[in-house]
Amino acid sequence: MTTTDQYKSIYHFYRDEEVLAWRTIGLAARISLEMGLHLWDPPYETFRNPHGRERTNRLFWCIYCLDRRWSFGTGLPFGIQEDDIDPSLPEPNDSHPYLLTSMITYSRIGSKILKTSSGAERAEREDTAFLTYQVQQWYSSLDPEVRVDDDQDLVVVGLSPARNRLRILNRLRKNQLLMLIHRKALFTSTSIAADPRGAKTAVDLARATITMLERIRKTSEIYQSHAVCFNYFLYSALTVILLAAYHAKARFHEYCREEFNMALNLMGGISAKSNVARKLWQIIKHLKVMGPELGILPYMETQQDNPRRECEGHTESNDKTLSWSQSQTQLYGGMGADSGQMLPGAREVSGLGNLMTHTDIPMFTNNYIVDGNLLCSELTDLFQAIDPTRYEQIPPHLLDQSRSQPSTSTFPMPDHFSRTVRNVF
Predict the structure, then answer these.
(1) Tens of pLDDT along 222-237?
(2) Among residues 42, 53, 17, which one has the least CA distance to residue 271?
(3) DSSP assignment, residue 304?
(4) Burial class of 269 by CB neighbour count within 10 A (0 to 12, 13 to 18, 19+)
(5) Would you kindly state where each structural domain of the chain is located, as residue ranges?
(6) Quick one: CA torsion of 328, 332, 333, 339, rounded to 10 degrees?
(7) Predicted structure pTM score
(8) 131-149 per-position pLDDT tens digit
């Protein structure tokens, strides 16, 4: 059963349904815990022979790595917690080029980084330095056949497409982990001023990631044939650029403009129902509300269009937008994620009226579609609105007037709504 669930989760992932992949591997994770695969000495007879024990051990670590990967991509909790794994449980006997054991190490480092950056633990400079060291050590320990060094081409002639793809993915994983370590420096203007080196490091890694993806797209078919694998890294890099431009306009806006435009070009391959498209739409929607409230985007239009919705074979375009109270019922509490049917008492359960909730639940509904052209257009408008040179062209009295007037946003913010963009990204 766990093997079947593992394959199903990979199938959902390649269909650009990462949340379903996360759900499926979560089921496999719970079954593996129930069977005692996470223990060196299971509480009951599970394995008939040493060969079977080794196979199930490999299966458990495969589930562990997939659970981490889908959680990294969706931002949802792990199905298998590190504390639940028996410390004496050995890693599988891997053969050259040691792909599984390298992914186990990568997953463990990623778990530590996320735990630190989420605020569960305060990250000191020593922690940042040690995590950076661990990432560098992990990458240098990889077999030369499955990594891209600075002086090497991204696509090596003579290697199979699968091996070239693995080399590129490992380099992107390295950038991703290092970017997550330093991204916390971008959460506020104060944090950027306190750690300018860390902020620039995160931005430079994001720029390098987008440039690498653009080079792959132009020079080989690897990107187009496996775009779903690369979109996670594209999304992470793009959000770092938006964070930097949002909080340090003068320093990072022009610095990142070229890579931002590259990212928009790369987004042409993103599925309308993908998790990446939905999360980007949520960022746009939240920033359209918070920007004028915080005085960071005083001239940005706050009238929010709705992405296209497709329900029971009926498509509704953007020019026929839903009211926010309707979308709250349909997206946040009223629509079954898989069936597309209204849940009983959903309107009463949501009880949100016209208040905008700080949640990403819409991206979990299969019938929620984001128009790709509208998404790129909105991202472009957002980046232009951040442009610090635009403010110089606005008369001062209009600037003061726009800041003093109450917000006319379609999405009024309740008192408990977070006034920080940290949780948005």
Answers:
(1) 988 888 889 889 999 9
(2) 17
(3) P
(4) middle
(5) 1-93, 94-268, 288-404
(6) 120
(7) 0.74
(8) 999 999 999 999 998 999 8
